[in-house]
Every structure is written in structure tokens, then in C-alpha cells.
Write a structure and sequence with these properties.
Layout lengths: L4 E6 L3 H10 L5 E8 L2 E4 L6 H11 L9 E3 L3 H7 L5 E4 L8 H12 L3 E5 L4 H8 L2 H7 L1 E5 L7 H9 L5 E12 L7 H8 L7 H6 L2 H10 L3 E4 L6 H7 L8 E8 L10 E7 L5 E7 L6 H21 L4 E4 L10
Parallel strand pairs: 1-2, 1-5, 5-6, 6-7, 7-13, 8-10
Antiparallel strand pairs: 2-3, 3-4, 8-11, 9-10, 11-12
Bound molecules: nicotinamide-adenine-dinucleotide.
Nicotinamide-adenine-dinucleotide binds next to helix 1, strand 2, helix 3, helix 8 and helix 12.
């Protein structure tokens, strides 16, 4: 492994494209690979994010990129086989709810060694990842799970904030997301719809784009969510902070306005050793986008994963158990 971390991004939609732009000015990481549903691109010298984004948006796949692009219906497997990558950010839709676990099995089976980072959201999806703990460890893969914004940045903040207390009473995550149009983040929005009353993952997955449009027309583009099944709960439980039923996650997504409908925050309430009840609140700046708050932490945790790998540590780790390292 050279000192510069060679990165691949799987999934080149909203988050994948933002990830490519986040990496562009970095000197410690270089984007060498990207894949979408219809193809992949690999260039060990580095990829130009603008070329990849323009090609994806005009021709439907990074497989059309002139240098290194390959069209494929099995792009992830083909990319693993034909590339040299230290770590992948999995910016893939988790639709169906078993998809990320299937991709992980694919990595294990391929004999690939390196770091994987996901921004997985559902508790039940992360629990599937945990069942692969031994396989991942034996394969020599260091897998960082739940490393987006929530779960991710906010879960890690809760884990740090909890240290002031002798006893944790509650962790309450409230997020506000504003995006200009839902098509830029189709998987994110479908997965959010899946949390709405009367919906589930399969129903949301089966919806056509026109049906999503119609639903958003009814709500004026707003999705309000309460008591979501979010893996922050299992991550904080595993980190020994509190039990999962003390963690609540909810929020508002505005799919028609990049301005956040409310300030994203996490409140950690507990009792100190002196018996005082208190709440720590960590609030994200309103100017920071979902993409900034997901991709930044994801690469920070990828760097941590590489650091763990260098010490011979493989297996599965969550954002609540580790600190992200800042990528320069
Ligand atoms: P998107 O719909 O914009 O893009 C998905 C991409 O994945 C597309 O490029 C598509 O071609 C590709 N893809 C789909 N199936 C594939 C396959 N079989 N092989 C290769 N590529 C495939 O998605 P998005 O809105 O950017 O969201 C990505 C994920 O990030 C979602 O699962 C979402 O829940 C998650 N997310 C997490 C957080 C967090 O804070 N943890 C926040 C936002 C989004």
C-alpha cells in the first residue's frame, strides 16, 4: 500500500458524484474507480470527477468514459477483478434491504482485501452486515459500517457526548435535509418513503418515478419522519452507550428546496456522577449539505479503516466505535 489511498466509489448517483467532488482536492486519497448499475471506470492515474459526472448524466453510465470506461451488467464484480483499490465507499442503494449484505458477500467471495465503508441506514440492514463478521474478518477486509451523517457523524458525536454522564437517558437525533430535486438522490428518497406510515422497503422500491412524483405532489415535496428504524440505535447499543430503545431518530426532508427545513442535531441526555440531569446538543451548520455530511465522514472512516488494516485489524467496526481521521 502506497501512502496515497486509492479509492473506489460504488454507486454514482447523488452521493457517489458528491464523493468524487469531495475527493478532488485531497492529496491523501485519489479516486481511481467508480461503478454504477451499467458499467464502471478504472484509471490507476486517477479519474477526473467532471468527466465522470458529465458522462454519467448524459449517457447513463460511467462505463462510457473514454479512458478506462467499461460497460457491464455485473459492474461491481468486474471492477473488483480488474482494479487495484485500497478502499471502496459503497454509495449504493440498499434496495432491496439485503443488497449491501449481498455486495459484502461478493467482496468476501472474490478474495479482495481492503477497506469497505458504507452509509447504511436501517437497523435490519446493518444487522445483516453483522452476521458476516467472521467472514469479513477472515477475508482480511476492514469494514466500517454506518459511516454517513445519520448513522455516522451524529452517532459518533453521541458516543463522544455520552462520556460526560454516568448514566445515559436518551439520544434523540433530528435531521433536516433540503435538496433541490428528488431525482438527484433517488435511492435516498425511496428509502425515506419506505419509513412513511403505510409503506415499507419493498413498496417503496417497487414505486415508479411517476408514483414517487405523485406522492411528493401530495405532500408539497415534504417527507416527515418519526421513530425511524435507524441503525444509530444498534450502533450505540453495541458501543455500550445505551440500549437501542433509548435512541430515537426522525426528521424532515424537503425535496424541492436546498435549504434545510430544520437544523440537524443530536441531543444526548443523561445524569452526571453528581446527580445532575443535563442535555448535550450537537447541531450541524445549516449551510452544510447532506452530501457534505455523508461523504466527509465516509472518507474519514475510510482513512481510519486503512489505519486499522495497516495494524492487521480486519472485521466489522461501526462509526460509534471509532473516530474518523481527517483526510487532507
Ligand atoms: P442514487 O439513487 O442517487 O444512486 C444510486 C447509484 O447506485 C446509481 O448510480 C446506480 O446506477 C447505482 N447502482 C444501483 N444498483 C447498482 C448495482 N447493482 N451495481 C452497481 N451500481 C448500482 O443513490 P443516493 O441517493 O446517492 O443514495 C445512496 C445510498 O446512500 C442510499 O442507500 C442512501 O440510503 C444512503 N444514504 C445514507 C445517508 C446517511 O446519512 N447514512 C444519507 C443519505 C443517503
Amino acid at each position: 500500500m502506497s501512502n496515497i489511498i486509492r479509492v473506489g466509489v460504488l454507486g454514482f448517483g447523488g452521493l457517489g458524484q458528491a464523493a468524487a467532488r469531495v475527493l478532488a482536492p485531497k492529496s491523501e486519497m485519489i479516486l481511481v474507480a467508480a461503478a454504477d448499475k451499467k458499467g464502471y471506470v478504472y484509471n490507476p492515474e486517477g479519474l477526473d470527477p467532471n468527466t465522470c459526472i458529465t458522462t454519467y448524466n448524459s449517457q447513463g453510465s460511467v462505463g462510457h468514459v473514454k479512458h478506462g470506461g467499461v460497460l457491464s451488467n455485473d459492474s461491481i464484480a468486474d471492477l473488483i477483478e480488474n482494479s487495484n483499490v485500497d478502499g471502496f465507499f459503497l454509495a449504493l442503494p440498499n434496495l432491496p434491504n439485503t443488497f449491501m449484505a449481498d455486495v459484502t458477500r461478493q467482496f468476501v467471495k472474490s478474495g479482495w482485501k481492503g477497506v469497505l465503508v458504507d452509509a447504511l441506514k436501517r437497523t435490519s440492514a446493518m444487522e445483516q452486515i453483522f452476521t458476516l463478521r467472521d467472514d469479513v474478518k477472515d477475508a482480511g477486509i476492514t469494514y466500517m459500517t454506518g459511516c454517513g451523517a445519520t448513522p455516522g457523524l451524529l452517532t459518533a458525536a453521541a458516543s463522544v457526548a455520552a462520556q460526560s454522564y454516568a448514566e445515559i437517558h436518551s439520544v434523540k437525533i433530528t435531521f433536516g435535509v433540503g435538496i433541490a430535486n428528488w431525482e438527484a438522490y433517488r435511492a435516498t428518497i425511496r428509502e425515506d418513503i419506505a419509513h412513511m406510515p403505510a409503506f415499507d422497503v419493498e413498496k417503496a422500491r417497487a414505486m415508479t418515478d411517476a408514483e414517487v412524483e405523485a406522492l411528493l405532489d401530495e405532500t408539497n415535496g415534504i417527507i416527515s419522519l418519526e421513530n425511524m428504524e435507524h441503525a444509530d440505535d444498534v450502533m450505540l447499543e453495541m458501543a455500550g452507550i445505551c440500549s437501542r430503545d433509548q435512541v430515537t431518530v426522525g426528521g424532515i426532508v424537503d425535496t424541492r428546496n436546498p435549504k434545510k427545513p430544520l437544523s440537524t442535531n443530536v441531543q444526548v441526555t443523561g445524569r452526571t456522577f453528581e446527580g445532575k440531569l443535563s442535555t448535550h446538543t450537537f447541531t450541524l451548520g445549516d449551510e452544510t449539505s447532506m452530501a457534505a455530511n455523508v461523504c466527509g465522514p465516509a472518507f474519514g472512516y475510510l482513512k481510519t479503516g486503512v489505519w486499522l488494516q495497516k495494524q492487521g485489524l480486519s472485521g466489522i467496526f461501526t462509526a460509534a466505535e471509532m473516530m474518523p481521521r481527517f483526510v487532507r
